[in-house]
Design brief:
By secondary structure, the chain is of the alpha+beta class. The chain has helices at about 25-55, 70-75, 80-110, 115-125, 130-140, 150-160, 310-335, 340-350, 355-365, 365-380, 385-390, 400-410, 415-445, and strands spanning about 1-5, 10, 180, 185-190, 200, 225-235, 255-260, 265-270, 275-280, 290. It is elongated.
Length: about 450
Amino acid sequence: MTAATAGGPARPAPPAGTRKSVTGTRKVVAAGFLLPSLVLLGALVVYPIGYSLYRSFFDQAGSGFAGLGNYREIFTDDTILTAVKNNAIWVVVAPTVSTALGLIFAVLTERIRWGTAFKLIVFMPMAISMLAAGIIFRLVYEQDPERGVANAVWVGVHDTFNESAGFPKAHPLPAHPLKAGGGGSFVTKEPVSAGKPVQLPLVGVAPAKMPSDAEPAKAPEAGGDGISGTAWLDFTRGGGGKPNVVDARELGLKGIKVEAVKDGKVVAEARAGADGRFSLPVSAEGALLRLPAENFREPYNGVNWLGPSLVTPAIIGSYVWMWAGFAMVLIAAGLASVPRELLEAARVDGANEWQVFRRVTVPLLAPVLAVVLVTLMINVLKIFDLVFIIAPGSSQDDANVLALQLYRSSFGTDANLGLGSAIAVLLLLLVLPVMFFNIRRMRKEAGR
């Protein structure tokens, strides 16, 4: 096949399937365009990687050859092993949960009229930095329910179904007729007798913390067949009063539970009235009276989200809050390209919505889900900001990850650049398989 040119003879057309380079045969021009990028790539990527690899074989001072000593320390030091374990948890949990939530949000928002507004709200956390998100969730996870949103909700739910103890710090004085009974309870020093009043004085409750409807305590009435007594706060505001004696300005411990115990078994129980008085049947004669521990347990202050056992899941929760929106937007874009005819055909064939989702929608979205999952896996391998900001100093070792340990080893008070470089190389080796998988997948997609 030939091609004619103006004012000249026809010349053969290039063979089919070949493509001429943009720069033609002038390779120098192509090299000139590529050179600045190659220089920056070498200075900012290749050289730091090479030097980190070289430095990882030297000791802390950098003057002595350490061989594989730094790498050996990574897998023998407990703190760094914790970081490796936490990184594994991050890689498995955070991308999976974020992708799953993104998929659910993307599918469900297609069915609601205000789906665009919902997507905007879910995606908004991506607009803030990791530093800002860390500060936000450090406040969210505060132990004090008056400051931490998570514990405010948790305590509210707990207190709805569980009654709080009325006198968490109450206790008897050594001169009182009560002694410690084990497990946080208090018991009388002597068995009780019918007709003989029992006095159960306690201290340690701030008057402001007393029940609002508590009344001035009244001395128990003598006589009768049963056991009568009074439980009261043996403390007079402003001073005065006598110990183990019911004074006019002292309040009854309304609602406190009193048990009669014989041979380790509870034979009777009662609760004190507003004036602190209570009565037990005659079956309680000869028993020890016990104030059980439920009267004195500390008020429920919520969950220690940033404690050693929950700090990593709590930080992962903040990461999911930020990145679920990213996953949702990408998956929603992929969902928009799914042929609706296939979904309708499945419904016509009798498939319910769950079957359509599991057998049609998810397989068609598999390439998009792989992109999101791999991107998030690479991202969490480098996680640093959230852990550094959210985890308090007492729990930072328990929340440690490799990127944070890299920072601590390289720039901490006892900096060891050799060990820090070894951790950096380990991080690179962990990222490379994920990157190769992503590149291979993209090439396969481009070849279709």
